[in-house]
User: What shape does this take?
Amino acid sequence: MLRNILVHIPTELSPRPAVDGSVSLALSTGAHLDAVAIGYETASIPFVAEGGVAVASLFEVEHAQALERAEAALRVFDTEARNAGISYTTRAAAAVPIDAREIVCASARLHDLTVVVQPQLEQDSYDNVIPRELLFDAGGPVLFMPYTFHGAFSAKRIGICWDGSRLAARALHDAMPLLREANALTIVTIDGPAPIPAESSTDHLLRYLAKAGLPAKVTSLPASRSEIQSILLSIAADESLDLLVMGGYGHSRLQETLLGGVTRDMLRAMTVPVLMSH
Assistant: This one.
């Protein structure tokens, strides 16, 4: 059961996907929602010397402007959360990027799920860095909302990306509160050169889900590494999926399994929300 959800509200990019996705998810699950927005300060501010006395006027101005950006983003969230009647809190802060990262990642470790917006790589903003950092440093699942997302999020049809790996299993277990409430589950496997271990095969996964009262169907397709992301999104469209669940791989893990290589591609281009765990 999801009881406490964290949402990172962008301050330099559109907050709408994070606001719409997180508020509707909290409403449907009954979870409490904590929203954090951070205005970014530059790493160093020159001090102005007047009469031999250093003053931090530039720092104070930038701090105030950064805090105002955070508060402005949270006003969008507050309006939607109040109208939805959910339980929520907000936190506005101003910080240099490295401190902003630590604030959000540390907060995520004491929440059941963190909601973020898919990075927009064509935009130069630290709002694009924090979601990727959260995936590997939150210690829990991260729900990426496409930056084109708007409206209510409802995970009634879910696709489970399965390669038998530890991270695929981690994502599966982290997503169980959502899987239990879904109307249809589709297990998506990609036939690659390395077979899935027998003990964590798709048949075993089907039986595992059945024991939990969760029937699922299987879609298995051959694909090269470069085709996986596009095939997953094609299946999501064909099956009218509301959500994809997959392991989030980083560093050397990108080369260890076929599904590992799709993590970066999925962050670059997604058409449906994606829950990832590392």
In short: The first strand starts at residue 4 and ends at 8.
